[in-house]
Amino acid sequence: MKKAGGLKVNKSHQQKSDHTNHWIFAIELGLFAGLIWGGARWLMYLMNFTKVIPGFLGEPFFKHSFLLTTAGQITGYLFFIVLSVIVSLLYVLILRKLKGPWPGMLYGVLWWSVIFLAGSRLFLLQRPFRLPWNTVISEFCIFLLWGLFIGYTAAIEYTDERKREQQTGLA
């Protein structure tokens, strides 16, 4: 037992509360990844860097004409946020102990491959390499950065030695 400001604090209870909840962290990470990089995708579409509509993930569920409207673009933005939450949950639960930026970048490339190569008929309604090259490159880069954001944020949270040294008093 340790006294902190006149109150008795159990040190083992204090250490347990310092650990990050995997589920809450992954959901928050996915939410912010979707908000930031979904917004970046939408901005890229508005600036004509990509021809892939913001609502491309909604293609299996909605008519293409709806996804071209503002409401359809917002729906697509929400779909991207949901995808980001799912993807970050998978990353945090399986790959969170990997260090550095490279695993996250590879994870983003993996998801670009799944969506744009394997799922192109489902989400893009055409082959990806029939799209203009600036679209393919822009989408590849945004997914690379999206994966980097998810992977590196998880790596910092779960493998940062400086944080553990401060908690144990070794720093």
How far apart lie the N and C ends? 22 Å
Which range best describes the helical content: under 10%, 10-25%, 25-40%, 40-55%, 55-70% or over 70%?
55-70%
Helix/strand-derived category reads mainly alpha
Number of helices: 8
What is the CA-atom radius of gyration, in angstroms?
20 Å
Total number of beta strands: 2
Major sheet: 2 strands, antiparallel
SSE arrangement, N to C: EEHHHHHHHH
Number of domains: 1
Mean pLDDT: 86
What is the approximate shape? elongated
* Low-confidence sequence ranges: 11-17
The neighbouring-strand order within the major sheet is 1-2
| Proportion of residues in β-strands | under 5%
Short overview:
With 171 residues, the chain is mainly alpha-helical. The protein has 8 helices and 2 strands, in the order E-E-H-H-H-H-H-H-H-H. It has helices spanning 11-17, 22-46, 64-67, 70-95, 102-118, 120-123, 133-159, 161-168, and strands spanning 2-4, 7-9.
